[in-house]
């Protein structure tokens, strides 16, 4: 093979490798900055996934390892209802969670 063909093949392989590496890159999200609008609109992730993370976060702050599925669902429903209030759409969802469960930072 001539040198030009080898260079082209090398470039294609390199681009493929870089594309594959980029596809596996992780995304990080600062949960404290997610607004109710973003939370409800699936703009940063599935609200159920965010709720699970928030549940773990607040249970960790309290030193609790107990998970109550019924209580989790009740809190998630209350958070969703509070977030649906027009005045709350731009508030951080963590602020709404703290209001609903009665915790503070």
Description:
- The structure is a single chain.
- With 105 residues, the protein is mainly alpha-helical.
- Helices cover 64% and strands 0% of the residues.
- The protein is built from five helices and no strands.
- α4 crosses α5 (93-101).
- The N and C termini lie far apart (66 Å).
Quick structural summary:
The chain has helices spanning 3-23, 36-40, 47-62, 69-84, 93-101. By secondary structure, the chain is mostly helical.
Number of strands: 0
- Whole-angstrom Rg: 22 Å
Tally of DSSP helical segments: 5
Which stretches are poorly predicted, pLDDT < 50 over at least 5 residues? none
Net shape:
elongated
Helix/strand/pairing class, anyone?
mainly alpha
Tell me the distance between the termini: 66 Å
Mean pLDDT, rounded to whole units?
A: 87
Could you state the order of secondary-structure elements as H and E?
A: HHHHH
| Biggest sheet statistics | none
Fraction of residues in β-strands: under 5%
What helical percentage do the residues reach?
55-70%
Helices and strands in order, then pairings?
Elements: H1 3-23, H2 36-40, H3 47-62, H4 69-84, H5 93-101
Helix pairs in contact: 4-5
Task: Sum up the structure in keywords.
64% helix; 105 residues; mainly alpha; 5 helices; elongated
């Amino acid at each position: 093979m001539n040198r030009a063909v080898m260079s082209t093949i090398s470039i294609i392989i390199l681009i493929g490798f870089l594309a594959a590496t980029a596809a596996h890159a992780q995304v990080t999200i600062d949960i404290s900055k997610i607004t109710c609008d973003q939370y409800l609109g699936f703009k940063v992730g599935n609200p159920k996934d965010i709720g699970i993370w928030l549940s773990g976060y607040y249970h960790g702050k309290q030193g609790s390892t107990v998970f109550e599925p019924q209580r989790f669902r009740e809190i998630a429903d209350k958070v969703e209802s509070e977030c649906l209030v027009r005045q709350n759409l731009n508030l951080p969802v963590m602020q709404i969670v703290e209001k609903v469960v009665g915790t503070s930072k």
